């Protein structure tokens, strides 16, 4: 949020605000998104990175995101995929299998269904932001980011988890 502040009016939402001393000039609503009561169609973009696995009602949150996004607005979403290769190879060691902190596990198919169900259209997918630097076997390389195109391809075909960009259709 701090990096975006000079360019955008930003607001945060968190059940428990963990940002130190509320970043200057950035209000943070403490509670559920659905309880923040933002005006309809009041946001150009919403980010939900590593959020949906923690929610009791991810569908309700997606409906609220759709309500507060302007037509053409963008949702950036990322959550663990139980159908991705790391989970399938060793579910017991999959980092998202962490109850009671992680409550939901949304496969790629489930994410697509839920986005479509609330009126959001996926416009792009790519690999997690830190995937090359966090992958055993390559993280020690001097520039693991050189492998980003490979990670993006494997995310698109479902081998690795992915980030999603979804757009609210114009009314």
List the helices and strands and how they pair.
Elements: E1 12-14, E2 28-30, H1 33-36, E3 43-49, H2 58-68, E4 69-78, H3 85-89, H4 108-117, E5 120-127, H5 131-134, H6 148-156, E6 162-168
Parallel strand pairs: 1-2, 3-4
Antiparallel strand pairs: 4-6, 5-6
Describe it for me?
By secondary structure, this protein is an alpha/beta fold. It contains six helices and six strands. The strands form two sheets. A four-stranded mixed sheet has the order 3-4-6-5. The longest helix has 11 residues, at 58-68. The radius of gyration is 17 Å and the shape is globular.
Distance between the termini: 29 Å
Mean pLDDT rating: 83
Give the spatial strand order of the biggest sheet. 3-4-6-5
> Helix content range of the residues, please?
25-40%
List keywords for this structure.
alpha/beta, 171 residues, two-stranded parallel sheet, globular
């Amino acid at each position: 949020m701090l990096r975006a502040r000079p360019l955008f009016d930003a607001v945060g939402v968190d059940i428990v605000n963990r940002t130190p001393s509320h970043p200057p000039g950035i209000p943070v609503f403490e509670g559920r998104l659905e309880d923040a009561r933002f005006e309809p169609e009041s946001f150009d973009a919403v980010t939900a990175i590593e959020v949906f696995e923690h929610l009791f009602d991810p569908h309700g949150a997606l409906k609220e995101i759709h309500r507060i996004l302007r037509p053409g607005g963008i949702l950036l979403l990322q959550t663990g995929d139980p159908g991705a290769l790391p989970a399938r190879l060793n579910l017991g060691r999959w980092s998202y299998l962490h109850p009671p902190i992680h409550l939901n596990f949304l496969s790629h198919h489930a994410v697509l269904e839920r986005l479509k169900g609330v009126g959001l259209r996926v416009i792009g997918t790519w690999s997690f932001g830190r995937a090359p630097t966090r992958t055993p076997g390559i993280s020690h390389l001097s520039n693991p980011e050189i492998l980003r195109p490979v990670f993006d391809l494997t995310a698109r075909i479902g081998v690795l988890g992915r980030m999603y960009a979804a757009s609210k259709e114009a009314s």
